[in-house]
Amino acid sequence: MSRREFRERIRAALANPTLQSALDANAQRRVTGRIAAFASLPDWRERRQQAHAVRAEVIENLEEYLERFIGNAERNGIIVHRAKDAEEAIRTIVEIVGARHASPLLVAKSKSMVTEEINLNHALEARGMRVVETDLGEYIVQLRGEKPAHIITPAVHLRRDDVGKLFHEKLGIPYTEDIPTLTNTARKILREVFLAADVGISGVNFGIAETGGICIVSNEGNARMVTTLPPVHIALMGMERLVRNLDDLALMLSLLARSATAQKLSVYTQLIHAPFPDQQRHLIILDNGRMQLRNSPLKESLCCIRCGACLNACPVFREIGGHGYQSVYPGPIGSVISAGFFGPDFVPLAQASSLCGACKDACPVDIDLPKLLIRVRAGGSEKKKDEKRKEGGGLSGLGRLFMRTYSFAARRPRLFVVSQKLAAMGTRLAAPFSDYVRLPAFTGWGYSKDLPRFAGKTFRERYAGLEVEGESTQVDRYTGKQADRKDEKPKQAPRDRSTLISQFTEELTKVNGMVVRTNTKDLTDQVIEFLQTRQIDQIHLEPGLLDESVLRKAGIVVRHAPDAALRVGVTRAICGLADSGSILIADAEGNPLQASLLPGIHIAVLCASDILPSLSDAMRLPIVHQARATVVITGPSRTADIEMSLTIGMHGPGELHIFLVDGTASTLVDD
């Protein structure tokens, strides 16, 4: 990729009003949401530093943790494969699915950047397989024959009328711009794919070395579908995506969702340790340049947890979007790892940065992205080393002149102060009635950027003034409020039962869940009353939870096996999490994971005594690593892939009702 080609794509993106409108809406809502989400986490600074240390320690000792992780995963019954590159990964997948003789083979995929990285869809389709993306955003761009435009929001570049026209042309529905109608159309079509798929393919957010389990997070429920329903599940994981233990996992999850989607937790946080009965579960661990990157000055980039926060914060990405980079990984982090994974052709991407530091501020694991971008610029490729030296690291002639002038002045403090004063005077003369000066087009930024007018005082002058005034407060980057760092202490999580119940109820309501307070004696009758108001006479019930004889007398047919036609699933909640309004469901007799996934309404029975303060407390429960799989559920399924418009009920249930029982788990069914 030449710099000229990159600039042409940038100009095309800037001239596209639809793209500009979509990018502006995404960036504003994502950044504002992230700020609000982190405001609810008083110790986010400490967590951020701790997360960086955890990731760095794993990367430093990667082979040791991989060996531990693989050994534990294989003992759990997961079939593990290692692939050094894309070709080997694809060959492994073809060998796995080749054992199945259905024709044509149907593959249901959930969103995975690693599969995009190896161009898996194209490879499987070339071999006669039908591959269907099941994330709504991914499904939309697949129908358009495009690549994702964002690692979290694949269709961020599109408006509702684009999707309406697409669904009219490709799916044959009447043209509409109503987002719930468009979402429901995709839900109906993809539900048939989930139920008929021969193979499910997913990515992996984290592998847990201590337990050999994998963690997958999603909001729509499609990741749960492709890992639960098909007889074969194949997960692809970049070799660096490891944490040491479940405590580390809880830490990462507390930062990931807040950074990615402004949620305290994603709707579904799966922990998978073993295959289900009559299921094969494969894990492919991919290198594809990661070990080479680990042994380079760009090693820190492997700490990334793929939240996309740096994309939303980056002033360049917010103008050109993901497709402008022409890489699987766009934005600041993409500009670094694309050069590391895919070679020198992607080095020019690092020039698409103002080095303003917004990406570093936004990163939940504190990766120093500006430093890494400078290293990419300085390194170039061995093949073009002489050319880079001649060209001054890829800068234009004007750019080289500016950098030489700046370097000369910056090394001389007095001259630097004078130059600042002169620049301030110049910008004020050039724009007496504006805070910005339009740059000339020949600078390369002039067709899209303005130069802020210089401040009246230098930083040193303003800082000296603050010292004289005796001000000791600082501005919090996330909340925008002044805070005295010396006096600030993380708030302690509430521990008394009534406070935990109140907090759980409040948080669940925020994520569109409902709480029904009851007791052991009245539980079954209240569930029956709920069912009768909805005219429901058949349910999927986890055994030992309700009085089935009373249900039968009321005309309710009880099933313990999965049935996609049933409207309600009733399961036990192992525990609740007060700080996020979440519940934990574990694999057990009666298929509770399917009961909490397939029906449109999920009823969970939770004992008040089982509400815990936070996810980290739940991760310490033995069942989390003993069960074949568990899932933390935070509200009903949802999507915001069309114009960032929140729609409740995607692939998973559209309603979540928690029957909160005053009692203990041992007394749920009154014998």
Task: Give a written overview of the molecule.
By secondary structure, this protein is an alpha/beta fold. The protein folds into four domains: 1-40 and 297-380, Fumarate Reductase Iron-sulfur Protein, Chain B, domain 2 (Orthogonal Bundle), CATH 1.10.1060; 44-134 and 196-288, Rossmann fold; 402-467, no CATH class; 497-667, Rossmann fold (3-Layer(aba) Sandwich), CATH 3.40.50. The protein has 28 helices and 26 strands. An eight-stranded mixed sheet has the order 8-5-6-9-23-20-19-22. A six-stranded parallel sheet has the order 1-10-7-4-2-3, with helices on both faces. A six-stranded parallel sheet has the order 15-26-21-18-16-17, with helices on both faces. Helix 25 links the parallel strand 16 (538-541) and strand 17. It is globular and about 90 Å long. Residues 380-393 and 468-491 have low confidence and may be disordered.
Question: Secondary-structure map with pairings?
Answer:
Blueprint: H1 3-14, H2 17-39, H3 44-60, H4 62-75, E1 79-83, H5 86-98, E2 106-109, H6 113-117, H7 120-125, E3 130-133, H8 136-143, H9 160-171, H10 179-196, E4 199-202, E5 206-208, E6 213-218, H11 222-228, E7 232-238, E8 242-243, H12 246-261, E9 268-272, E10 280-286, H13 290-294, H14 309-313, H15 317-320, H16 331-342, H17 358-362, H18 369-379, H19 385-391, H20 397-410, H21 413-430, E11 436-438, E12 450-452, H22 459-469, E13 474-475, E14 482-483, H23 497-510, E15 514-519, H24 523-533, E16 538-541, H25 548-553, E17 557-559, E18 568-572, E19 575-577, E20 582-586, H26 592-595, E21 601-607, E22 611-612, H27 615-618, H28 622-626, E23 629-633, E24 638-639, E25 647-648, E26 655-662
Parallel strand pairs: 1-10, 2-3, 2-4, 4-7, 5-8, 7-10, 15-26, 16-17, 16-18, 18-21, 19-22, 21-26
Antiparallel strand pairs: 5-6, 6-9, 9-23, 11-12, 13-14, 19-20, 20-23, 24-25
